[in-house]
Amino acid sequence: IQVHYSITNELRGKHFHYSTNVTAPSGSTLLQVMEVAAEEKPDIFSFQTEQTSWGPYVTSIHGLAGNTDDRTYWQFLSAGNALEEGVGTYKPHDGEHIEAVFSTY
């Protein structure tokens, strides 16, 4: 499958927006797609996760981490809609555009 993946921060510090096309095996989770992007362009798409009872949770992308004090986090969207599942279970379809947007709650 090919997934269009982008990361955007227009909230804190130095703003950025990067996009890439990721080719991953059919049935890959979003986490696996993100891992491919990070392997191909580690200086841009590197990320960190922590394990929670709901599965892996993305804490940081491109060196920018969410923070409970200022109520920021990385939100994942497909076609502008927030994903209902976590990155460890969500399986993008071929041609899907996934956005990670640094957001507040």
TrEMBL record:
<dbReference type="InterPro" id="IPR051588">
    <property type="entry name" value="Cobalamin_Transport"/>
</dbReference>
<dbReference type="Pfam" id="PF14478">
    <property type="entry name" value="DUF4430"/>
</dbReference>
<dbReference type="GO" id="GO:0005615">
    <property type="term" value="C:extracellular space"/>
</dbReference>
<feature type="domain" description="Transcobalamin-like C-terminal">
    <location>
        <begin position="27"/>
        <end position="99"/>
    </location>
</feature>
<dbReference type="GO" id="GO:0015889">
    <property type="term" value="P:cobalamin transport"/>
</dbReference>
<protein>
    <submittedName>
        <fullName>IF factor</fullName>
    </submittedName>
</protein>
<dbReference type="GO" id="GO:0031419">
    <property type="term" value="F:cobalamin binding"/>
</dbReference>
<dbReference type="InterPro" id="IPR027954">
    <property type="entry name" value="Transcobalamin-like_C"/>
</dbReference>
